[in-house]
Design brief:
Strand content of chain B: under 5%
Largest interface: A-B, 50 and 41 residues
Helix content of chain B: over 70%
Number of helices of chain B: 15
Shape of chain A: globular
Helix content of chain A: 40-55%
Radius of gyration of chain B: 21 Å
Oligomer: heterodimer
Number of helices of chain A: 15
Number of strands of chain A: 13
Distance between the termini of chain B: 15 Å
Order of helices and strands of chain B: HHHHHHEEEHHHHEHHHHH
Strand order of the largest sheet of chain A: 6-5-7-8-9-12-13
Strand content of chain A: 5-15%
Strand order of the largest sheet of chain B: 1-4
Order of helices and strands of chain A: HEHEHHEEHEHHEHEHEHEHHHEHEEEH
Structural class of chain A: alpha/beta
Shape of chain B: globular
Largest sheet of chain B: 2 strands, antiparallel
Largest sheet of chain A: 7 strands, mixed
Structural class of chain B: mainly alpha
Chain lengths: ~425, ~350
């Protein structure tokens, strides 16, 4: 017995030893808890893309990728534990998929010289790279999202939404509160009336909010929801017969599992997006061949091609491209986290690159720079077809109101810099 | 054999009344203190501090605080999360308003603010008891969380409603913020835990504690023998909230660094601390530590064994954690309804007689 235990311990040590010289991408995922419905497809997509690179290309630049998964349950305390337990393994970039955990990691990771990529979540003002040297939120952030939604409404109303009533149903947390300031500025600029309807964690109880919507009959409802809150909101909207085409969710409120439970009544529901949807891309053939058919898919392997799966895959693709860029800049294949940061800051994504990766028109083309960690902030709109059970793009990636957003970003990041004695500037 | 009173003569009342009357216990206590203060700071890294020691120490303070209220004074409270939030937000406001003052003072002041709020929400305890009081404190929990979410002054008008702790120092050493060395926040919390435990222990075995216990055991009888229920109950709320407020302040400033009130100080937090003292043992300072250790360390330990050791998928491991911790709680409570502290007491009783039990 004792011998058996000793040999087990020995094999464990031996299995852990050759972990050197890998590119380590930790995945702080959540496959449990009230937000698991969104966490699972994202984590699967993130993992599968790295598996694909390992199987097809032998890693990035010849160095194999090692992905460490750590369950956070969308809980900040567990997020800290995950961060501390994985950072010692040589983690290159963190993507926690939680605004709360991102807020917590921003100062820590900056001090540890590890970049964070909070793609479409986290602290919006991190787009200002002069203050947030290690935080990136390209290709779009919440304020782009808010402005993109308003722009879409402007477009569909002939450029005039003055006097319209717009309600925001939001998760009452840092995440849900992010767009409020932008929407308030935009309501001044365009003259619409904004109603704020907070929904408390985890979001199963929304009767009173939708009763208010039923009474006040806003022309449009925007939603900043996540997890179980989305399904409940769409069901409640269907219950009060709110016209679905006037209901727009942010990109975290627009996946298959959000709308499927409401059935046909969810038909026409819209959501914002910063990447393309569906599985009509050449990369999925490779994914099928090297990952799914080989039995190496993460999780249950049933999420391929879902909206959030695509987003996880997109996140992994951007991380892999940044790692490639870092390898080119520094001339070494086994990069460190600090070099990864340089790679992210020099990242350039264009149509040719995406086509070469089998993902033509999957996302916008953009260049990251030290001043701008947020990318171009192009926002598209997708719509749900309940009969075909598919999301489709109905509005291409378009410019958002950077006049308003830019001012807010510099204001908020200046406040952060003052609070934490950061000297803004590019190194 | 070695664990016995025989031969350990006490020559003064002070000796006779000390916390650890048995010599072996006393030395064990000194050794634990020595290891905690002298050895551990040299051995720990970021992971041990942030994932294990800080949550354990901070939850211990919260458990001590709640134990004074529930375990010693018998007033059931479900407002712990809310009171921790008061401590955290008080600490945040103080930290950002008076950046030059030592964080140690801010943490104590945050405890003081929480004590005031605790007394306010303790007022209903004068008229209602038991489950009804639990419901009244539940109202405190929800009201306080709502308040900190609703009024932007508390989070300095930040866009997201998050509060984050800037770097603050004690004697020139950073204990909050990202640039801390592993041992500084550990020692900072350890000092506060030690002080809290000593104060709580001496309070609960002195006159104040006896008054609380009299109220707990039978409030009418206590009133007849001259205990003022108003003072006893409100002082229990004040002292308990003081410790819980300190725990909340440390939880936010030293441990997490950035919190969001609904997520970090929700009703789950109240239940977690309540479970800690129930599992650890009501009315016992040691029980507070044992309960905190059990509920903080067990999930981390299981995670490391299941995911790190056995390489299982993270979701299965996370679900199994719930199952195993839940099962252990049930087993412990069936085996010993008075908690881990009682198990420890029984073990000590047996040790005294060992090797010649009757």
């Amino acid at each position: 017995m004792k011998l058996k235990f000793a040999s087990m311990a020995l094999t464990a040590v031996m299995a852990a030893a050759p972990a050197m010289a890998d590119l380590v991408f930790p995945s702080l995922s959540y496959r449990t808890g009230p937000y698991a419905a969104g966490g699972i497809p994202f984590a699967d997509g993130y993992a599968d893309y790295f598996t694909l690179l390992n199987e097809r290309d032998g890693g990035i630049g010849g160095v194999p990728i090692k992905m460490i998964e750590c369950e956070t349950g969308y809980n900040t305390a567990k997020g800290v534990e995950c961060y501390e337990s994985t950072k010692g393994e040589g983690a290159l970039v963190y993507q926690p998929l939680s605004t709360g955990i991102t807020y917590q990691l921003i100062p820590k990771a900056t001090a540890d010289d590890i970049p964070i990529h909070s793609m479409g979540y986290g602290r919006t003002s991190a787009a200002n790279g002069e203050v947030f040297s290690h935080v990136f939120n390209y290709p779009g952030n919440y304020w782009n999202g808010a402005s993109g939604a308003i722009n879409y409404l402007l477009e569909s109303n002939g450029g005039d939404i003055a006097g319209k009533k717009i309600a925001l149903v939001y998760h009452n947390s840092a995440y849900g509160k992010e767009p409020i300031r932008t929407l308030e500025e935009l309501s001044k600029k365009h003259g619409f009336e904004l109603t704020l309807l907070p929904v408390d964690h985890p979001g199963q109880e929304q009767k009173s909010q939708w009763l208010q919507i039923r009474r006040e009959k806003p022309d449009n409802v925007l939603m900043w929801g996540w997890g179980v809150m989305n399904q409940v909101a769409i069901q409640e909207a269907a219950n009060i017969r709110y016209p679905m085409e006037n209901f727009i969710g942010v990109w975290w409120s627009g996946a298959e599992h959000d709308v499927l439970s409401a059935g046909d009544s969810a038909n026409g529901y819209k959501a914002l997006t910063f990447h393309n949807v569906g599985r009509d891309f050449p990369v999925f053939a490779d994914m099928q061949k090297y990952v799914v058919d080989a039995g190496k898919a993460a999780g249950a392997g049933d999420q391929v091609g879902n909206v959030l799966y695509n987003r996880g895959m997109y996140a992994a693709m951007l991380a892999a491209e940044a790692a490639k860029t870092a390898q080119e800049i520094h001339g070494v294949s086994d990069i460190t986290a600090g070099q990864m940061r340089d790679g992210m800051e020099a990242l350039s994504i264009d149509e040719a690159k995406m086509t070469a990766l089998g993902m033509p028109n999957f996302g916008p083309s953009f260049n990251v720079s030290c001043e701008n960690h947020g990318g171009p902030g192009l926002v598209g709109v997708t719509q749900w077809d309940a009969a075909a059970q598919t999301w489709s793009m109905i509005s291409d990636f378009k410019e958002t109101d950077m006049d308003v957003i830019g001012g807010l970003i510099s204001e908020d990041s200046a406040a952060y810099a003052a609070e934490n004695n950061i000297e803004a500037g590019c190194k | 054999m070695f664990y016995r009173e025989a031969g350990d003569f006490k020559t003064s009342y002070a000796d006779d009344n000390q916390t650890f009357p048995i010599k072996f216990d006393r030395y064990r206590y000194y050794v634990v203190m020595l290891i905690a203060f002298v050895a551990v700071p040299f051995l720990i890294n970021d992971y041990w501090v942030n994932a294990i020691f800080l949550p354990f120490l901070i939850y211990s303070i919260a458990a001590i605080g709640l134990n004074i209220l529930v375990g010693y004074c018998g007033q059931v409270s479900l407002g712990t999360g809310g009171f921790m939030a008061v401590g955290a937000y008080a600490c945040y406001k103080l930290m950002t308003s008076f950046p030059e003052v030592s964080i140690f003072i801010h943490v104590l002041l945050a405890g003081g603010v929480t004590a005031g709020v605790g007394v306010l929400f303790g007022l209903p305890s004068l008229r209602i008891k038991g489950f009804y009081l639990a419901v009244a404190t539940l109202a405190a929990q929800f009201f306080l969380v709502w308040l900190f979410n609703r009024v932007p002054w508390f989070y300095n008008y930040s866009a997201s409603g998050q509060i984050s702790a800037p770097e603050r120092t004690v004697f020139g050493l950073a204990v909050t913020g990202p640039n801390t060395t592993a041992w500084a926040p550990y020692l900072f919390c350890l000092v506060i835990v030690t002080l809290s435990a000593i104060v709580a222990r001496n309070m609960t075995r002195g006159m104040q504690g006896r008054k609380w216990m009299a109220i707990r055991d039978m409030d009418i009888a206590a009133e007849i023998i001259g205990v003022n229920p108003l003072k006893a109950k409100l002082s229990a709320f004040a002292v308990s909230s003081f410790f819980i407020g300190i725990a909340g302040a440390l939880f936010f400033s030293v441990y997490l660094g950035a919190v969001e009130v609904g997520e970090a100080f929700g009703i789950n937090q109240s239940f977690l601390v309540l479970f800690m003292i129930i599992i650890g043992g009501l009315g016992s300072i040691f029980g507070s530590f044992a309960g905190a250790a059990f509920l903080v360390l067990m999930p981390v330990f299981l995670k490391n064994v299941l995911v790190g050791g056995l390489g299982w998928p993270t979701d299965i491991a996370a679900h199994l954690e719930f199952l195993i911790v839940g099962a252990l709680i049930i087993i412990f409570l069936i085996a010993e309804p008075h908690g881990l502290a009682q198990l420890w007491r029984v073990a000590k009783e047996k040790l005294r007689l060992w090797p010649f039990p009757h």
